[in-house]
Amino acid sequence: MEPAIQALTFEEALAELERIVRALEGGALPLEEALALYERGQALADHCQRLLQEARLRVRVLEVEAEGIPRLAPFAGEE
């Protein structure tokens, strides 16, 4: 039985997604199995994207402007 996607860490989800991509690229799967893997892969990709977005928000640093007013500033390298 596959673990619930929401319970996976980013690294676990990414590793499973990579396995799914390799399996799908192999092209030897029956259609129904390929579709099921594709759907799980899409859910894993969405989960990874959510985790990355949460990490971006956590990385934001609080800096104080010259007037002493705190504001959130993006971490270096963030868009």
Number of strand elements: 2
Shape summary: elongated
Runs with pLDDT <50, length 5+? none
For this structure, the quaternary state is: single chain
Helix content: 55-70%
On the 0 to 100 scale, the average pLDDT is 86
Q: How much strand content do the residues show? A: 5-15%
- Rg is 19 Å
* Secondary structural class: mainly alpha
Give, in spatial order, the strands making up the sheet with the most strands. Answer: 1-2
Count of DSSP helices? 2
- Order of secondary-structure elements: HHEE
Explain what the structure shows:
The chain is mainly alpha-helical. It is 58% helix and 10% strand. The chain is built from 2 helices and 2 strands; from the N terminus they run ααββ. It has helices at residues 10-26, 31-59; strands spanning 61-64, 70-73. It has a two-stranded antiparallel sheet with strand order 1-2. A hairpin with a 5-residue loop joins strand 1 and strand 2. Helix 1 (10-26) packs antiparallel against helix 2 (31-59). The N and C termini lie far apart (39 Å). The model has no long low-confidence stretch (mean pLDDT 86).
